[in-house]
Specification:
135 residues; globular; single chain; 4-stranded antiparallel β-sheet
Amino acid sequence: MKKIALLLILCFVAVGIFAQQYTVQNVVGSAFLETRPNNWVPIQIGDKLNDHSVVRTGLNSQLVLEKIENGQPALYIISSMNTGMIIDIFHAKNRVRIGGTVAQTDTSTVRRSTVNIGTASARASDAAADVEFQE
């Protein structure tokens, strides 16, 4: 029984050691961390987060995280109107990664891309939560 308990403890420690650690580099607008269900606290520059941290960004907000990959710092951006675990947000289509080295650039070509834009009603209802109204 003691061996099983020790094995379980070691598994939890290993998960904590191998979880990706992020450092908050910048916060534009509003960004919050869920510390327990339905309890959101503002994220500050310098905060440490991991893959399973649940974050929420408001309208016109941005959260910039730094993670060390292969000995090199890499910046990750969570754009506005996102809520969820960091690992889920980064594996979604809107993942943006900045980092690495640029060996050669070509500025003579123009590339166009499309992005997903939320509907006006969805954005307005989320914006209402970020703005205080006076009557």
